[in-house]
């Protein structure tokens, strides 16, 4: 059996808004929106992977808050785990430095205004429920 690899995605929240990031690569994912993050490396704690990826991709200093219960399948062997996170005091504002070419802070009523990656929709639905947003 192929080993599964955890991808940590951040539900970065600020003033009740969720940060969505538009992928710039690879071509099959470009133009679709996702939760910023990336693969957990061998021996790395998921929270540490999240902080590392958010620093690399967005230039921010983030604090993981809690794991959102659940696990969502991505392209094999990857599975998505989601953690809520917030900006630490003094952090720079997020910028699309790597992997993304646009960012948007979405209020709960606008969560579905961006074309999420198909495989992210169940996780975003879970976040919508937690944020008290409308269903889709
Ligand atoms: N970060 C992230 N990746 C996602 C999401 N949904 C989804 O299918 N993926 C896929 C895209 C990639 O195939 C894989 C994560 O790759 P990545 O490119 O973000 O991770 P990474 O920085 O660790 O990768 P690498 O370039 O160092 O190999 O998971 C999502 O919401 N967030």
From TrEMBL:
Record-stated family: Belongs to the Nudix hydrolase family.
Pfam family, one: NUDIX
GO biological process, one term: DNA replication
Keyword line: DNA damage, DNA repair, DNA replication, Hydrolase, Magnesium, Metal-binding, Mutator protein
GO molecular function: 8-oxo-7,8-dihydrodeoxyguanosine triphosphate pyrophosphatase activity; 8-oxo-7,8-dihydroguanosine triphosphate pyrophosphatase activity; 8-oxo-dGDP phosphatase activity; 8-oxo-GDP phosphatase activity; metal ion binding
Enzyme Commission number, as recorded: 3.6.1.55
Domain Nudix hydrolase: 3-131
Cofactor: Mg(2+)
InterPro entries in alphabetical order: MutT-like (IPR047127), Nudix_hydrolase (IPR020476), NUDIX_hydrolase-like_dom_sf (IPR015797), NUDIX_hydrolase_CS (IPR020084), NUDIX_hydrolase_dom (IPR000086)
Catalytic activity: 8-oxo-dGTP + H2O = 8-oxo-dGMP + diphosphate + H(+)
Listed SUPFAM superfamilies: Nudix
Keyword field contains Ligase: no
Protein name stated in the entry: 8-oxo-dGTP diphosphatase
């Amino acid at each position: 059996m192929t080993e599964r690899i955890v991808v940590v995605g951040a539900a970065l929240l600020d003033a009740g808004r969720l940060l969505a990031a538009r992928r710039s690569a690879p071509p099959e994912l470009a133009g679709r929106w996702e939760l910023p993050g990336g693969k957990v490396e061998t021996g790395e704690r998921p929270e540490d992977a999240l902080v590392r990826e958010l620093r690399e991709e967005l230039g921010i200093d983030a604090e993981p808050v809690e794991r959102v219960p659940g696990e969502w399948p991505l392209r094999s062997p990857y599975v998505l785990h989601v953690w809520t996170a917030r900006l630490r005091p003094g952090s720079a504002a997020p910028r699309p430095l790597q992997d993304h070419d646009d960012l948007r802070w979405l209020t709960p009523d606008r969560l579905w205004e961006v074309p999420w990656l198909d495989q992210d929709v169940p996780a975003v639905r879970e976040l919508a429920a937690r944020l008290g947003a409308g269903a889709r």
